[in-house]
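Handout, section B. The chain below has 188 residues.
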Amino acid sequence: MKSLSLTFLLAVSALVVAIPLASDPVICQGELITLSETFIGKNNDVKMEYTSCKGTQVHQKKSALFEARQANATNVCGANCNTNCFTPSGGGPDPNECHVIADALRFASENTGAIFPIPTGANATIVMSYRSCRSFFVNQDLGPLAYCRTDWADLIDFIAPNCQSTQNAHGGNCVATDQRWFVQVQHS
């Protein structure tokens, strides 16, 4: 499914164009604004948001999400990605709280469907939040993507406990080997 190479602190950002070296990646140059919000999981306690960068051209909420679902999205389920941890240590999310997000994604996969769409352009970020943990799926491709909820859950369950202060880190991400997308886990 994924090659989670653990070159945590070595040669991490050399291939990652959109992510600065030795710091948290910039999701958006401005402020992220919420286009839509819902709660998922067995207890509806994980907040899921489709977001956009403030100051960019944003389509109307409903039409942007509708277009994302209607466009021919490239399915990237099972695509390889490389794990990077953010240095220095301190301030990472609680892995147990991140696991709640992972479980909510698995629950949604069983009850809503395994695959979800990710729009492109200014509306290319989906955010999941629960207490101290926040995870992003960012589409950096020119077109819409589709990804598996269980793959995202597996990445969260891997990144959260493996990018902590014991690894001189405070969260991390997994960047697709073709750099089309990345999943990030950090403190909310």
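Note. Residues 32-54+63-187 form one domain. Compare this with the example in section A.
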